[in-house]
Specification:
Length: about 160
């Protein structure tokens, strides 16, 4: 099953045009890109809801390998043959992983990346474990912040 996404085609759309594929950050959805889309109105846009987010909330992946497969499937199902991956935070990391690992048709069709606030991840096992502990703590605060109206910027992240 492919990921949920929203297609936005410009009036002069042709199938050979390169797409802008927008990948949101953690806790987000494709709707997070809504304010940017009018500025990109000359391009076909694919706003993707990543697994566990938005309308893809019921979908799960175990690792980046499965995420790459889901993204590749989604691009195929949507008929996206050439694209730029544009990612914020988690979406940026997914874009970098996809670019570093893709081959064949996907590699030929990937024109480039634009990443904001993303990084390739921690290489040291101890640092990764500390990040997991910290993220579990921050996620435990998330429901409380939503109930009290606190903004995400006030979380210790």
């Amino acid at each position: 099953m492919s990921l949920h996404c929203q297609r936005i085609e410009p009036p002069h759309f042709t199938p050979d045009m390169p797409w802008l594929v927008l990948l949101h950050g953690l806790f987000g959805s494709g709707d997070d890109w809504q304010a940017l889309c009018p500025l990109l109105s000359e391009w076909p846009i694919l706003r993707v809801d990543l697994p566990g987010h938005g309308a893809s909330a019921s979908m799960r992946v175990r690792d980046f390998s499965e995420m790459r497969q889901q993204l590749a499937l989604t691009l195929r199902v949507q008929g996206v043959k050439r694209c730029w991956l544009i990612g914020y935070s988690l979406g940026g990391r997914i874009a970098m992983d996809f670019a570093a690992s893709c081959a064949g048709e996907e590699a030929a069709g990937l024109l480039g990346l634009l990443v904001e606030g993303g990084n390739p991840g921690l290489m040291d096992g101890a640092q990764r474990q500390m990040r997991v502990v910290r993220n579990v703590f921050v996620m435990s605060l998330y429901p409380l912040c939503c109930r009290t109206g606190a903004v995400r910027g006030s979380l210790p992240i």
